UniProtKB/TrEMBL annotation:
Organism: Streptomyces chiangmaiensis
Name the UniProt record assigns to this protein: TIGR03086 family metal-binding protein
InterPro entries assigned: CHP03086, DinB/YfiT-like, Maleyloyr_isom, MDMPI_metal-binding
Short name of one Pfam family: MDMPI_N
Gene3D superfamilies: dinb family like domain
Domain named Mycothiol-dependent maleylpyruvate isomerase metal-binding: residues: 3-127
Signal peptide boundaries: none
Length: 194
């Protein structure tokens, strides 16, 4: 989890305000909105879920907040993300049940996989949208692929993932994970944003 967090943080640090209106592989989210989504789910809710705290605690930052309006927002995210990774690096976080949203308790292992996917999938989305490269080693790619393979069909039913993108079986495992999650590994940012 720490390496996944660091990979996403590296990308976030490389995104400037001039990129906020750019398109991403997530058609409904521009770069700025995707940054706020990533920060919320890996820096606020993911942290609370790892601690088994209920979502929407009275003092919690609300979904839809513009984290990028804060001074030093990227470094604030780096600290939040590292705190989330530390929580999920303890075996107790993966035991029992917890919640990421207000839709009820789920197995903590399932929620932990979502947090991992948020860092790596949305980290990749932001990377390709802003001309960067996400650092994902073989172990991270394997963990992500295994998690996505176990939930891709359900995620598609609920509109979390788009239709599977066909990726050759000889492609790198991370590319195959992207395809399972409805992403085209060859996606390029539009020419007008380059």
């Amino acid at each position: 989890m720490a390496r996944a967090s660091e990979s996403a943080v590296d990308i976030v640090r490389g995104v400037g305000p001039d990129a906020f209106d750019g398109r991403t592989p997530c058609p409904e989210l521009k770069v700025g909105a995707l940054l706020n989504h990533l920060i919320f789910f890996t820096g606020v809710r993911g942290h609370a879920a790892g601690l088994k705290q209920p979502p929407q605690a009275p003092n919690e930052v609300a979904e839809g907040s513009d984290f990028t309006a804060e001074p030093d927002w990227a470094e604030a995210y780096a600290a939040r993300s590292a705190a989330t990774a530390a929580v999920w690096s303890v075996s107790e976080a993966w035991a029992g049940e917890t919640a990421l949203t207000g839709s009820g308790q789920m197995p903590a292992r399932f929620i932990g996989g979502i947090v991992l996917g948020e860092w790596l999938l949305h980290g990749w989305d932001l990377a390709v949208a802003t001309g960067q490269k996400l650092n994902v080693d073989d172990e991270l790619a394997a963990a992500l692929y295994e998690d996505i393979a176990g939930k891709a069909e359900m995620a598609r039913r609920y509109g979390v993932f788009g239709p599977e993108v066909s990726v050759p079986p000889t492609a790198p495992l991370f590319d195959r994970a992207l395809g399972l999650a409805g992403r085209d590994p060859s996606w390029k940012r539009p020419a007008d944003r380059m």
